[in-house]
Design goal:
The chain is built from twelve helices and no strands. By secondary structure, the chain is mainly alpha-helical.
């Protein structure tokens, strides 16, 4: 008859607990933060291209002139569309990574992580809407008929406004500022960036000149995402 003690030693020779511990260990990857850098750069590309499509010297009482200008700028429109939609994907990844990152260091039950992620989500939705008419008008600008120029002129106003609605990013910046400066849930300097650039983005987004948030929001995101990518040492060392 075999000794049950020895049998137990055989079964415990390769204890499964280590595998369970490894599986449960937190994975602190920086891919989500890099996605934020990508989203910010693509957001800046979108804003710059959009600015290039707006001609202050053009007579906006002449819809045909607007339609002809957009027809000549088809390549720019395609670049803006691809940059905007690719940036949407990167924004979603960044939002979810930010939610996980702040959730790991904020007090239990805090809403700040959810608010921060939701702000980025709102920005992604605004960009999605900004690109929503591209399919309809991107190539329609080539066909300038007597009743078409007016609607194409509307599209010109659409792409010069909706992709600029980065107010949600300002909300995220302020939420990160509170999380960092009050709860020490992120590096202090990232909190200061959120309290300045993020708050400015939120304020201009709340104002009637809300499209001006597009000037500041991508810059805030770029600095913040770079910070979480390379400057979040305390959290990385805790892994």
């Amino acid at each position: 008859m075999k000794d049950p003690t020895s049998m137990g030693e055989v079964f415990l020779a390769d204890p499964p607990s280590r595998g369970r511990q490894d599986a449960a260990a937190p994975v602190r990857t920086r891919a989500w933060a890099v996605s934020g850098v990508v989203a910010a750069v693509l957001g800046l590309v979108t804003i710059v291209v959009s600015m290039g499509l707006w001609d202050p010297d053009l007579d906006y009482s002449d819809p045909t002139a607007i339609a002809e200008r957009l027809s000549d700028a088809k390549g720019q429109l395609i670049v803006m569309h691809v940059a905007m939609v690719t940036g949407i994907v990167a924004l979603v990844v960044f939002a979810l990574g930010l939610l996980r990152r702040l959730g790991a260091t904020l007090p239990a039950g805090s809403l700040l992580g959810g608010v921060a992620a939701s702000g980025i989500g709102l920005t992604a939705v605004a960009n999605l809407l900004g690109s929503g008419l591209d399919t309809e008008f991107l190539f329609a600008a080539e066909v300038v008929e007597k009743d078409v120029p007016e609607t194409i002129a509307f599209y010109n106003h659409w792409i010069a406004t909706i992709p600029w609605l980065w107010v949600g990013a300002g909300l995220t910046g302020v939420a990160i500022a509170v999380a960092a400066l009050k709860h020490k849930a992120a590096p202090r300097w990232i909190g200061i960036v959120g309290a300045t650039l993020g708050a400015l983005t939120l304020l201009v987004g709340i104002s009637p000149l809300q499209y001006m948030a597009g000037f500041v929001g991508p810059v805030w995101l770029l600095v913040t995402a770079i910070g979480f990518t390379v400057g979040d040492r305390a959290y990385r060392n805790a892994a």
